[in-house]
Specification:
The complex is a heterodimer of chains A (110) and B (112). With 110 residues, chain A is mainly beta. Chain A contains no helices and 11 strands. Chain A starts with a strand and ends with a strand. Chain B is mainly beta and 112 residues long. In chain B, 0% of the residues lie in helices and 50% in strands. In chain B, the strands form 2 sheets. In chain B, strands 2, 4, 5, 6, 9, 10 and 11 form a 7-stranded mixed sheet that branches. Chain B has a 4-stranded antiparallel sheet with strand order 1-3-8-7, with no helix packed on it. In chain B, strand 7 and strand 8 form a beta hairpin.
Chain lengths: 110, 112
């Protein structure tokens, strides 16, 4: 069965303290791995898509990487406005359906 | 186009009542998805439309749930005889064949 597990469930950082979020997955026929950001009470906001092992993508203080079994979201020198829940999802098959992990809630304190 | 639009944003209903939610996707997207999200969890897939055809339904979608997408444009999700366990955020997303999915702001349902 296709499955996505994120760790840690919650992460507290001081402003400027870099860290990484983990997303482990098992899927038959990965068509893409997605990272979304979700603020409280709002819908997920797209961040990155990764398609193959070794691929990396960056956006501001965020960098996503992909291996055959997991993905990391690296946050460099975070700011309080980076506080949110970060969701990882995989797409298996060609319908575009996403299977999400439970998310990592990040709090960055000034 | 301003993105995926969902209406209403919040809905409080009494147990046993019927509710209907609407989703307007990004206009050039032919794929539309409904997800359900409970507190502390990631979104769970409910159903998928390509144009007007409903091509996949999750086992989570009991017979009290029905979704439509007439003419391949907007979509509605109806829940009949609501139960307290239906309380959740209902998210709509749309995409094209080779693009990522974009989500709406969701409809927060509270069943009292």
């Amino acid at each position: 069965e296709d499955q996505v597990t994120q760790s840690p469930e919650a992460l507290r950082l001081q402003e400027g303290e870099s860290s990484s979020l983990n997303c482990s997955y098992t899927v038959s026929g990965l068509r893409g791995l997605f990272w979304y950001r979700q603020d409280p009470g709002k819908g997920p906001e797209f961040l990155f898509t990764l398609y193959s092992a070794g691929e990396e993508k960056e956006k501001e203080r965020l960098k996503a990487t992909l291996t055959k079994k997991e993905s990391f979201l690296h946050i460099t020198a975070p700011k309080p406005e980076d506080s949110a829940t970060y969701l990882c999802a995989v797409q298996a098959g060609n319908t575009g359906k996403l299977i999400f992990g439970q998310g990592t809630t990040l709090q960055v304190k000034p | 186009d301003t993105g995926v639009s969902q209406d209403p944003r919040h809905k409080i209903t009494k147990r046993g009542q019927n509710v209907t939610f609407r989703c307007d996707p990004i206009s050039e997207h032919n794929r539309l998805y409904w997800y359900r999200q409970t507190l502390g969890q990631g979104p769970e897939f409910l159903t998928y439309f390509q144009n007007e055809a409903q091509l996949e339904k999750s086992r989570l979608l009991s017979d009290r749930f029905s979704a439509e997408r007439p003419k391949g444009s907007f979509s509605t999700l109806e829940i009949q005889r609501t139960e307290q366990g239906d309380s959740a955020m209902y998210l709509c997303a749309s995409s094209s064949v080779n693009t990522e999915a974009f989500f709406g702001q969701g409809t927060r349902l509270t069943v009292v």
